[in-house]
Design a protein that fits this description.
The chain contains eight helices and seven strands. By secondary structure, the chain is an alpha+beta fold. The chain folds into two domains: about 140 residues, Beta Polymerase, domain 2 (2-Layer Sandwich); about 70 residues. The strands form two sheets. A five-stranded mixed β-sheet has the order 1-2-5-4-3. Strands 6-7 form a two-stranded antiparallel ribbon. The model has no long low-confidence stretch (mean pLDDT about 95).
Length: about 210
Amino acid sequence: MQPVTMADALEALSSMEEGQPYSYRRDDPKRRLADELARISGELGVEPVVIGGLAVNHHGYMRLTADLDVLLTRSDATALVRRLKSERGWKRYAEGFKNTLLDVSVDICVEGERTSPHSPETFPSPKELQLVDVDPLPVPTLPELIALKVMAGRARDDADVVELLKRHRRRIASVQRRAAERLRTDGARSRLATLVERAREELARRRR
């Protein structure tokens, strides 16, 4: 992946706007990719859920992201992969596909697969998640998204959790409780508690 330049960052920020789905205006390539994926998914009868950076944006922490991450059931993922292999303007790329017309990729995450190479956690079925009905594709509720981030256990995900908690500071206790219910291991719940403490400490420093 090419490094993001200052020009890239400024261009991406210029297309971000609070109040829009995923905090991106309709003409942004990532938003257009979500629209295109929703169209294809509707034709197939599959139901992707947007996770990753766009979902983080939608819940109030606006940060740059290079692609679109979606979570699907195993059967839905099989159907979508088969379709994208034959769809004009799509090619295999990294963990999923790239739309060559928009120059944006989609990473396909599948229930039961590991959330990251170094994590023992696996993705839950998207059908188990509580969702926010966003057009064109839904996102997990804040506690569900935070649980998914904790399951992944990467530095980028940890940072997202802390920033999301800080932006929803009045809900930290309830979000932690509900996210912990989704987590399967004591290690993950301990990681969540550590990130909650980090968020509280950073909020406290800001008030000084």
